Amino acid sequence: MAAVNFTDYDILGFDMDFTLARYKLVPFFNMVYDGICRFLVEEKHYDASIFHDLHEDKDLIYKGLIADFEKGNVLKLGHDGVILRATHGTKKLTMEEIEKVYGKNRIFGDYENFQNGLKSPDGKWRFFENYFDIPALVAFARIVDSIRKMDPGEERSTYVHIWAEIYEALEDMYKPTQCRANKGSFFPNMKAHTYKYIDKISPEIKDWLDALRQNDRKVFLLTSSFPDFATLVMEYAFGPAWKSYFDLIVYGGRKPKFFTESKPFLEVADTHIGLEVEELKEAGEYCHGNSTQLMEFFTRLTGKITPKVIYFGDNLWADAWPSKSLGGWNSVLVLEEMDAEGYVISDGTVKEQENTGGNSSLLDGKIRFEHSSLVTEEEIELMVSQFWGSIFIDEMRDNRTAEEKVMNTAFGDLISQYTDICVPSIEYLAGVPVTNAFTTFGTDRGSNKGFHPGCPKSLLS
Fold first, then answer.
1. Entry's Gene3D superfamilies (predicted)?
2. For 278-321, how does the pLDDT look when each residue is reduced to its tens digit (9 = 90+)?
C-alpha cells in the first residue's frame, strides 16, 4: 500500500491562508459577508433588508457546492455528476423540482468541464470551496430569494448578472493594491484587528518546520497573497522571524495559473515588488512566477534532475489539483471540515493511543469520534450542515459495511483523485514524527485510506 513519508522528499512547499495560517472562521466569515453586503448596498443599490444575519442561512457556508448562475440554484453533486441536493436561492428543492430543471437523471450538464478544471469556461457556474468567497454564495442566494418574492410567478432565464455584481464586490475587497492603500472593507479590518481573525501558531509547528529542513531538505512558501498582506499575516502568526523557516518565499502565486502560465518572477524587498529576475536564489523573496522556472531552480538547488516535491494546501482548485495533475508534485490537503465533522483516531499517530492498545477509537465497544481542541463549537455549527449532509458521502443506499464505505460526492471524489493524504490541520502533523509513513488514498476513486489520524465520522457511521 502506497505511503507518504515527508523525509523522502527533497522539497516541501506550503500554502499560507488556512494552511500554515489558521483563521478564526466565525468572525472571519462575518467580516467578509458584511463587506460584500455593504458594497452591494452602497455601490449597486440593493435593499439592505435582503442581507440579514449570515447565520440564518449558515447551511450555505459549506465547501464543495456549485452555484448555477443561470438557474439561480445551488447544487451538491455526486461523483458521477448527479445533483444530490439543491436550493433555488435558499429555498430547498425537492427531487421533483430538481428533475424539472435538470432532467429525469438530474445530471449537471457541465460536469465534464468541472472534473477537468473545476472552473466554468464561460462563467455560468462557480465551485465554492475557498473560505474567501464562500460568504458571497449566501449573498447570491439571498438576492435570488428577493427576486422570487417580487415576481413569484416569473421564471427568469438567467441570474448571471447578479453574480457579476457580487464578483465586483469580491474584487473591491481583495484587489492587492487595496492593502497598501488601506482601502475597501477587507484589508483595513485585517490590519486593525488581526487578532480577531488569525490564530498564533504553536511552538510545535515551528519545531516541525525546522525538522523538515534537516538532511538538506528545503521548505518553501507559495501563496497567492501579495507581499504586504502575507507579511501582515505571517508576522502575527509566526512572529518577526517568520521568514527564517523558509528557503524560498513566493507571493502572488496566482494558483492555479502558476502551473499553466509562464509569468516571470519579480524580486521582492521589504514587501515592495521590484524587477524581473532571470535566476532564483536561495532565501530569496519573489512575486508571481511559474512552476517551470521554479522546478529548474529546485534542480539546481538539490543537484537532482527530478527533485521530489510535496505541497500542503487547503484548496482543491488552487492547491491540490494543479500541484498534483499539472506540477507532478504530491499533495496534502488541510481540511478543517474533517475536524468539524469529527474523525476516528485509528492510525497510531496520536499520543493518547499509547494507553489504549493503539486504538483509542473504541470506547465501551463503540466507535468514538474526536474533534481537536482547535475547532470551536461555533465553527462546528457553521461547517456541519443538516441539509447538505457530509461533504464526503451522501446517503449510501446499499448493504456495504462501514469499513467498505467510499466517498461518493463530487468533492470527496476529487479528494481521492488529487490528494495523497488529507489531515484536519498542520497542528496535527506537527505532533507526528517527520519520519512517519502516512497511508495514501491510492488509485481507487473515492478511497478513504488517506485520511489521518483516521476516517471522518460520515464514512464510518
1. HAD superfamily/HAD-like
2. 999 999 999 999 999 999 999 999 999 999 999 999 999 999 99
Exposed / middle / buried, residue 202 (Cβ in 10 Å: 0-12, 13-18, 19+): middle
CB atoms within 10 A of CB 180: 14
Cα distance between residue 89 and residue 152, in whole Å: 13
Model-wide pTM > 0.85: yes
Cβ neighbours, 10 Å, residue 324: 19
- What pLDDT is attached to residue 431? 95
Q: Given a cut of 70, is residue 154 above it in pLDDT?
A: no
Q: Which three cell numbers stand for residue 364?
A: 465501551
Rg of the chain over CA atoms, in angstroms? Answer: 22
Residue 382, phi then psi, degrees to nearest 5? -75, -40
Q: 125 near 163, Cβ under 8 Å? A: no
Q: Check if the beta carbon of residue 423 is closer than 8 Å to that of residue 452.
A: yes
> Cell digits for 40?
452591494
Looking from the CA of 112 toward its CB, the CA atoms found within 13 Å total: 1
Residue 153 pLDDT > 60:
no
Pairing of strands 437-439, 3-5: antiparallel
With beta carbons less than 8 A apart as the criterion, state whether 333 and 422 touch. Answer: yes
Q: How many CA atoms lie less than 13 Å away from 11 in the CB half-sphere?
A: 29
Query: Which of 134, 129, 141, 139 lies closest to 39 in space, CA to CA?
Result: 139
Q: Mind listing the pLDDT tens digit for each residue in 68-112?
A: 999 999 999 999 999 999 999 999 999 999 999 999 999 999 999
C-alpha cell read off for 98 = 430538481
pLDDT at 354: 36
